[in-house]
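Run: sequence + adenosine monophosphate -> complex structure.
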Amino acid sequence: MKVLVPVKRVADSNVKVRVKSDGTGVDLANVKMAVNPFDEIAVEEAVRLREAGSAAEVITVSCGTSHCQETLRTTMAIGADRGILVETDADLQPLAVAKLLKVLADREQPQLIILGKQAIDDDCNQTGQMLAALLGWPQATFASKIVLEAGRAVVTREVDGGLETLSLALPAVVTTDLRLNEPRYVTLPSIMKAKKKPLETIKPLDMGIDVAPRLKTLKVTEPPKRSAGVLVPDVATLIEKLKNEAKVI
Ligand code: AMP
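>> structure
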């Protein structure tokens, strides 16, 4: 069985991004980019399924500019077998990505699609859910454990107050949470090997999909600066301040 893993190229989580001075977005010039962390977990999980003999092939797909080739090569160094780049310079929003992924799912016929629960740049948390709806497949979001058995995926999900276990008929869509696994360290030989793996490039127009944005960003602003704290000499002063200054008790 094939596992399809969509991966987004985002600003590295260790980088402190800055808002552009005209408030139109975030300045990504010269910023270190990386695979979205939740997608790295998704790739790791798919590769572990293949290594365990539950999956035959792991295909990663990234939608975006030609730079996403680099993102796909990283996923192939983790262990994905091949990559698909849906190349466009357009500003892609979750619905457009979900439509592109649906076309690829129809073509590749995977039994399982594992996405990240959210991309850490826009924090949308929408693409997996939209894709499942477009395909009419069952979905389990925020997975902390995935077990494949007898044509079903048994997924443990992190919910408020505990864990929930769902059994989904395949094919299905699953999105990853942080505790699903710890992605492996990518070695130099695996990076070299990844360079030789197949990478196909297609364009949204050839897939018959209009990726024009449906939402407009009006303004992006920095969060307000936190003011400095004060040290209080004793508990009595703290209580007095909480009562009379902060007025929280
Ligand atoms: P989002 O709904 O934007 O928070 O993204 C959720 C997940 O959808 C990500 O973790 C990826 O697995 C997938 N995804 C989002 N955007 C893209 C993209 N441009 N290319 C490939 N996968 C994507």
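>> summary
The chain is about 25% helix and 30% strand. The first strand starts at residue 2 and ends at 6.
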